[in-house]
Specification:
8 strands; Translation Initiation Factor IF3; 362 residues; alpha/beta; globular; four-stranded mixed β-sheet; 11% strand
Length: 362
C-alpha cells in the first residue's frame, strides 16, 4: 500500500511542475498521432460525399440499363392478327348469342385504353377486313417447305417426352388468348412446342388442333391422343413475331340460354319425366374423372345409342361446371338431347328422329 501511495504522489508532483521541452514535444507528437488515427479521426465525414456520389452514379447506370432493356409501351396497342380476340377460342361458339352479361361490356380484360379494339362483352373484333387468301399465303411463307420424315422424327424425339421443358398445358379453358403468347415465347428458343391437353376440350381434339394452328400460325406435326407437337416453321423470325396483347384478367362469362329445358323438345312433360327416371335407374355407360382425357367418349356415346334410347354418364368429382360443358359438347357432337344432370350424373336422350328411324345418330 505504501508503495502505491508513493507512486501516486510522484505522479502528482510531476504534473505540478512544468515539463521539460523534450517531453513537451513528445506529448504533442503522441497527441497528433492519436488524432490522425482513423477510428478517432473525422476522416469518414470527408469520405461520405464521395460514397454518395459513387452510389448515385451506379443508380443512374442501372436506371439507364433498365430503360434500355424495357421497351416503352405506346398505348393503345395495335395488333394485326386476323381474328377477333376472345378469352377462349375452342370453348366458345360465336354463333350463340348471350342473353345477358354479368358485367358491362365496357370493362375490357385488356385494360382501359390498352388496345385499339372495342370489347363487346365476349370478343374484341378486328377493325379491318380480313383477306383469307392473303393470310394463308403469309402462313405458308413462314412455314416454308414441308419437313422431311427424318426432320419430323428428329423433332418428335426431342419434344414428345414428358420431361420436355418446352411444354404448355391446355386445361378446361381450351385454346385461350394468352396461350398464343406463350407459344410464341417458347418459339424464341425452340422449333416446336409440346402441348398437353386435359379436361373437357379433349372431347373434340379436332377443334383444338384447328384453333391452335389457325391462331398461332404453326403446324401440328405429331398427335398422340392428347399430346400435340406444334412446329413454328422454317422461316419463323422471333424478332418479327406478331403482336399479341395480353388479357390482364379473366372476363366474366356471359349468360347463355339454359341447356336443359323443363320439357324436352318432342316430348310431353310426362314422357320427359319418365325418360329421366329411366336414365337415373340405368347403369352408367362410362365413368369420367376430373381433368381426364375424354377423347373416346363421343364414340362410346354413339355406340351406346345404337342399343339404348337413354344413357347415363357418371361424372362424380368432375364438378358441376364441367358437367354442363360436357353435356353441351355432346349435344353438338353426337346430336343428342341432354335432359338432366343431377348429382353429377348426365342423362342423355338420343332424340325423336333417331328413335323413329331405329338407329342412333351418326
Amino acid at each position: 500500500m505504501l508503495h502505491l501511495f508513493s507512486r501516486r504522489r510522484c505522479h502528482l508532483h510531476l504534473h505540478n511542475y512544468p515539463l521539460p521541452p523534450i517531453l513537451f514535444i513528445t506529448r504533442q507528437l503522441t497527441q497528433s498521432h492519436f488524432e490522425d488515427d482513423p477510428p478517432f479521426s473525422p476522416i469518414l465525414k470527408t469520405l461520405k460525399p464521395q460514397i454518395q456520389k459513387t452510389l448515385n452514379q451506379k443508380n443512374k447506370k442501372l436506371k439507364e440499363d433498365e430503360s434500355k432493356k424495357k421497351p416503352h409501351n405506346n398505348f393503345p396497342v395495335k395488333s394485326d392478327l386476323p381474328f377477333d380476340f376472345r378469352y377462349s377460342y375452342s370453348e366458345t361458339n360465336p354463333k350463340v348469342e348471350p342473353i345477358g352479361y354479368r358485367e358491362t361490356p365496357k370493362f375490357s380484360p385488356f385494360g382501359p385504353g390498352r388496345l385499339d379494339r372495342n370489347w363487346t362483352g365476349t370478343a374484341a373484333p378486328s377493325r379491318r377486313a380480313i383477306d383469307l387468301v392473303k393470310v394463308e399465303e403469309e402462313r405458308k411463307a413462314v412455314l416454308g417447305e414441308p419437313l422431311s420424315e427424318e426432320e419430323v422424327l428428329d423433332l418428335v424425339e426431342r419434344y414428345r417426352h414428358s420431361d420436355c421443358c418446352r411444354q404448355i398445358n391446355l386445361g378446361k379453358g381450351g385454346v385461350t388468348h394468352n396461350m398464343i403468347d406463350d407459344i410464341h415465347n417458347h418459339w424464341k428458343k425452340a422449333e416446336a412446342v409440346r402441348i398437353k391437353c386435359l379436361g373437357v376440350p379433349t372431347l373434340d381434339m379436332d377443334n383444338v388442333c384447328f384453333h391452335i394452328e389457325e391462331k398461332s400460325g404453326g403446324k401440328i406435326i405429331y398427335r398422340q391422343i392428347n399430346i400435340l407437337l406444334l412446329y413454328r416453321g422454317r422461316n419463323y423470325d422471333p424478332k418479327n413475331r406478331p403482336v399479341v396483347p395480353l388479357m390482364l384478367w379473366k372476363p366474366y362469362p356471359p349468360i347463355y340460354p339454359k341447356l336443359i329445358k323443363n320439357v324436352a323438345d318432342g316430348l310431353t312433360f310426362e314422357e320427359t319425366k319418365e325418360m329421366r327416371n329411366r336414365g337415373l335407374n340405368t347403369p352408367p355407360l362410362i365413368k369420367l374423372s376430373r381433368n381426364g382425357v375424354y377423347a373416346n367418349v363421343v364414340e362410346k356415346v354413339r355406340e351406346g345409342f345404337e342399343a339404348e334410347e337413354v344413357l347415363k354418364l357418371d361424372c362424380a368429382h368432375v364438378g358441376m361446371s364441367d358437367c354442363k360443358r360436357i353435356a353441351a359438347k355432346l349435344r353438338d357432337l353426337v346430336l343428342c338431347v341432354p335432359i338432366l344432370y343431377k348429382d353429377e350424373q348426365i342423362i342423355l336422350w338420343r332424340g325423336k328422329k333417331a328413335t323413329e328411324t331405329g338407329s342412333g345418330p351418326c
